[in-house]
Amino acid sequence: MDNSVYEKLDGAVPVFHAPELSSLASEIRRYLDAGISALTEIFKSEATRRVVSAAPELRAVVVAEDEWEKAPRESEHPYPPGLPYFTRSTEPPTLVFPEKLSPAIRPRTEATLPLMVWHELAHAFLLRNPVVKTPAWLREFIPQAASAAVARREGLPLESHLEKIDRPDFTARTFRSPATAEGQMAFQNLLLSLGNAAVEEFGEDFLNRLVHKLWREENIVGEKRAAAMLAEALGSGSGAWLEMREEF
Predict the structure, then answer these.
(1) DSSP letters along 181-222, please?
(2) Does residue 169 contact residue 245 with C-beta atoms inside 8 Å?
(3) Rounded to an integer, what distance in angstroms lies between the CA atom of residue 195 and that of residue 127?
(4) What is the Cα–Cα distance from 86 to 139, expressed in whole angstroms?
């Protein structure tokens, strides 16, 4: 990636982009600005219920298709083309967005791109503090539920987006890696559906409680503990509610 020719858009998160991607970069910057504002409020201090720390310091890069292999990353090999991701291999950490989303990312609606942006942004918020190892479903549920919460705040047509999701033959807890890109997307869609339902049923404050529980946790979180932590964060009646959800 030739940084010398990339242009910069200022915002809550600075966005660097190839010159020909200025329109896409401007759109992503709008979503980042909205996401930073919402997630800073959602993940405010649990003790004081006030925002006591700034959002994590970040930058974003919108990468041209022919430069994807040169995008910043932790691993030696490039990430799959068309899949946004968050990397701490740079200082400050970087949100990486492709010129074109992978065909595996479905459904395609006006909510698809902003949900992708807020998902990766929520990862950055979560990982600003150390987090112990957890089951994959819990680790990915938080950014999916957070992106649903932001979408609801922003008035995106989330329900019509969710109506286009095909139900797979697994649940969030029975999904196993490795999987195809389509399988991974089905897993993420399950968590988005569950996260949206949880926000609708219990309100978005459970995200604050859940994230702060994880930040305080010192031991690896196993399957039973993960389910218990989620139920505790959701609150009264959540155990029975979770068992009734087909996604769970």
Answers:
(1) HHHHHHHHHHHHHHHHHHHHHH-THHHHHHHHHHHH--S---
(2) no
(3) 19
(4) 14
pLDDT above 70 for 166: yes
Whether 51 shows a pLDDT value over 50: the answer reads: no
CA 236 to CA 180: how far, in whole Å?
Answer: 37
3-state SS, residue 63: strand
Scored b (16 or more CB within 10 A) or e, 59-86 reads bbbbbbeeebeebbbeeeeebeebbbbb
CATH class label, 3-244 = mainly alpha
Distance CA 32, CA 118 (A): 7
Name the token pair of 220: 């690896």
Is 16 in contact with 62 (CB distance < 8 Å)? yes
pTM, two decimals, is: 0.94
Place 200 in a pLDDT band, splitting at 50, 70 and 90: very high
Instruction: Enter the tokens of residue 219.
Output: 């031991």
Give the helix/strand (H/E) hosting 85: strand 85-87
How confident is residue 4, by pLDDT bands cut at 50, 70 and 90?
low
Contact of 203 with 234, CB cutoff 8 Å: no
Mean pLDDT of 192-214: 96
Question: Would the pLDDT of 199 be above 80?
Answer: yes
